[in-house]
Amino acid sequence: MDQLLFYIKEGFYHVLDWRAYDHILFLIVLCVVYTFDSLKRVFLLISLFTIGHTFSLILATYGVLTIKASVVEFLIPITIFITAWINIITLKTSSRNSGVNLNLFLALFFGLIHGLGFSRGFKMLVGREDDLFLPLLEFALGIEFAQLIVTFIILLLGFVFCSFLRFSKRDWVLVSSAIVVGLVIPMLLNSKFW
Length: 194
Hints:
This protein is mostly helical. Helices cover 77% and strands 0% of the residues.
């Protein structure tokens, strides 16, 4: 039971680590386009992201997939930038369903990239344990819990800004996505990839 709680807690704090806030930035741009009316769709998005994250973490942990850390550290902010930019450019042109389908794909595919970003850290976390699969699943459970909390906060902020502060939904998505773009550009420029 101690091991279960340990890995759930580590997964939980992996998402909520303010020193590595790229995970939160991605969740913001992924979920800012939704409201509480779309709760099932949002839960599906979050779960797809966790599945992608966990799958690539499994592949990297077992040595099936190896990608240079500098490439992954560059690709993670790219995923955030692309998702934010899609939010901005599709505000007027996309229909609700096509945007939703694109977000489902982005959540899964970009989850794969984000999972690679923590593979080295996860290997150090588990050390020399023989069975890595169960800790990986426990870690994923912690990630899922934390993502649900962050997503709830994003939806709540959207509700407050749009209902009480009279932001239009368009302005809420545009401003939130633009702020995230502004935060991601320095991450891209400072990447070891260059």
